[in-house]
Amino acid sequence: MTTVPFVSAPALPVVYDTRVRHVTFFSPALGVSRGFFIYIPPDVDDDHRAPTLYLLRGHEREWINPFEDQLRGGRNVIDVYETQRAAGRVGPLALVFPGTSSDDNRIPGMLLNMRAPHLADGASGIGSGRFADYFFNDLIPYIESHFPVVGGGRARGIVGFSLGGAMALSAAARRPDLFACAGAYDGTFLYACDRGRRVRKRDRVVANAMFDAAYGVPRDLAFVAQYNAPNLILRSRREELARITWVVAYGPEAQEPWQSNYYRGEHLLACLHARGFANALEDPVLHDGDHSWRTADRFIALTLPLYDRALRHESLRAPDRVRHPQ
User: Fold this and answer.
1) Helix-strand-coil percent breakdown of the chain, rounded to 5?
2) Cys-Cys link to 134, which of 29, 108, 251, 261 (CB 3.0-4.6 A)?
3) pLDDT tens-digit readout, 72-89
């Protein structure tokens, strides 16, 4: 049940990284303006477009803030990408960091059309609460009409950490036509039950008050299940899910429950395996990892070549699955 604690966003604009651009645009779905960060490699332009990788957590700053936690060592995911690029392990990729929470990062949007947005207590950035419509219908088209990226579902990937991992796999399972690959590190997945029709009622994550706006009060577990990745994987059409390269990792069992979502990750993989899908990582456990941005960055370093191959339409055969060092 591990999640990274939400931290209020600064009141004044902060330059987290000069290599990225912060963009604010009006979302018709939400009825308010929303911001995102985007990184475009220097060699990408209108004549040399790049595939897009969406990176999720909560606030748009989190993946790019080198001091999001004390363990990050002054580096962020842009450093991870540029190191992999310099080593020749990946090609040009545009990295997009959307905001998926209230502006102060207290209320997670969960990339769903909120059940009870009025319960967000007036938090700014929520608007209508239609975060699914915002992401699929507003943000993705905006990115592809304003930046030098390759359009189309085979040129998009999505990945996240913690709640972002749960959102990333949910988005891919709901709209497999929009993504070639989907990754999650230590995702806060809910447990599917009743053959994927419901989620576990007594799951403490489901009951957490920060989800009141997203899930409603009292909780409608059938509604929650509509957006939960394990449920979607169990109940969606197999031939559509088969187009996705699934990339899943999590912390070790010894770090449960506060520094690892090991059991939730195991449950998600069991759902994938039940439908006949392999994980692109041979060993999903980062054995010396924890629920920190340091380990999330390590996960990206490990898996970026997998996303790059999927986004460039290269086959990922079973013998080629990646095994990370113990």
Assistant:
1) 35, 15, 45
2) 29
3) 989 999 999 999 999 999
